[in-house]
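Chain X:
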Amino acid sequence: MKMTRNISLLFIAALIFGLYSALFTVNQTQQALVLQLGEPKRIIQKPGLSLKIPFIQDAVFYERRVLSLIPQDAEEVILADQKRLQVDAYARYRIEDPLLFFQTVRNEFGARARLESIIDSSVRRVLGRETLASILTGERETINGSIRDEVNSSVKSLGIEIIDVRLRRADYPQATSQNIFNRMKSEREREAKEFRATGEEEAQKIRADAEKTRTVIVAEASRQAQELRGQGDSEAIRIYAESFGRDPEFFAFYRSMQAYRKSIGESGTSMVLSPNSSFFRYFNDKNGRDAE
């Protein structure tokens, strides 16, 4: 009786385990491929609970959602105008045929390796027909579409559908960028030298014009000063003449005082003259009469 109970329990446990192994769930974001001893038997793309033969069949799950592929490193490509660019492209794809996908690449890791190679080749071929100007303008969308179509035609045999391929980055290589920077720097330095030379030339012209104007102004001022000085001397001579005509003795006295100031003033000049000289007549007599 006890043995019969144990056998029944074992049978129930085996049945439960068998049912557990036979049942599997396919989520809404997944699709499944049932394999029997490694050979594909059927595809399940509807979400829900499904059955398989325990211990003989296995289920492999694939994503139904759109997947992204972002290459790790940028690739260098040569354009139609012989320009070199570092290009980084990314792709969005979907597993369209799980059976074909399993037969060709097995899993997403294998698909990634194949896709990277195909996308790289397509990017090189398409960009090899384009120029730098077309990539930097509105034609870039057309180029992205051409790459997408070419990649799509190549991955149909993998059970994959390419949703989109885009150029994420398109830059000059480091060496080319440095050369361009050096050329730009040299060009700016040349322009700066031209501006400085032009400025120095203009400065010299301005200084020359200013010096010319200064010379003219100084010459005109000197001329006017000479005229005024001549007029002053003429006026002084006229006044002296009038003064001499009015009072000859005062004029003689005034001229003698001027002669005294200039000759024996503060200059320390030594003079050897006779005391009876007419030069000292106002020293001997206030009226300037010669001494007897």
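Chain Y:
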Amino acid sequence: MRLQSYHIIPALQPYIKLICTMEADGDADNGNIRVLPDTCVELFLNYTGTPVAVIDHKLHKRSIVTSRMSRPMDVQMRKGAGVMAVCFQPGMAYQFIKIPMDSLSNTTVALSDLWGNIAVDMEDRLSACYNNEMRVNLMQNYLLKQLAAGKVDPDILNCLNEVQLSGASVSVNQFVKDTGFSQRHLSRKFHEHIGLSPKEYLRVSRFVSSLNYLKKYPEYSLTEIAYQSGYYDQAHFIRDYKAYAGYTPKQVLQNDHVLY
């Protein structure tokens, strides 16, 4: 599979984590890969006539939206497929999709169910482009127009920034104190904008932080990675890996088909 990432224009960088194209070449379908949760929502825009992929044993033929909040997804790209992937920063997809994110959490849905005829028109326009650079420019211009109609909730943004700066070691009580919201009201906002409760978002964020340590410091012991990631003990560390990856930390390291 050919994978190529592209520059994100400055106006979209606070909202979009990655834009890339993925093209499955060869004579056979690509092997199954397990993609681990990362609290992000992704668009996969199909610019070919080939079905996109089999995800969790279901064939998806057209452009799709996936939401990997707290569960891994098993993906197999179909031969001949070509898609543009747009990965939103945590909590930022709401600005472009504009429906409560908890209705999408841990699902894969057709983009046409969310954008209607716009999704079909976008596929046609992407297909007519001469190259992937043109496709990326077209998509970014569209997203920029969508962004102009929305506004990020400043309280949610502050909470997300706090998670990033603290390495997910902040508490829900700190969110309540900083926002002045009741825990119930804060939970409603998180479900609407992110798709998870504050507690679950922090738990998955801690898991993602540990994955980054695994990738960056393979020489570290698992005990040290657990400690650096904010886990209180090894048992919680292993429990989260089994919940979010379906594997132990050691098995994640040993499996080439696990993507994180």
